[in-house]
Amino acid sequence: MQYPITYWFGIRKEFIYRADGSLATEEIDRVKDAGFTLMLAEFDVKTNKLVLEAAAERGLQVMVSDHRIDKARYEQDNMRDHLAAVVADYASYPALFGYHIVDEPNAGSFDTLAEIRRVLAELDPAHEAYINLFPNYASPEQLGNPTYEDHLQDYTQKVNPSIISYDHYHFLKGAKKERICVDEREQQIYDSTFGGASEYENVDRAGFFTNIEQVRNESLRTGTPFMVIILVVEHGPYRNLTDGEIRWEVWQSLAYGSARLSYFTYWTPGANNTEGDDFWHWQNGMISQTGETLPHYYMIADINRELQAVGSILNEQRSLGVYHLGEMPNERYITYADGAVGPIDKIEGDQLTVGVFTDGYVLIANRNYAGENDFTFAAKGAVALFDAESGEFFALESEDGIYRMSLGEGDAILLKFEK
Question: What CATH homologous superfamily does 5-314 map to?
Answer without folding.
Answer: Glycosidases (3.20.20.80)
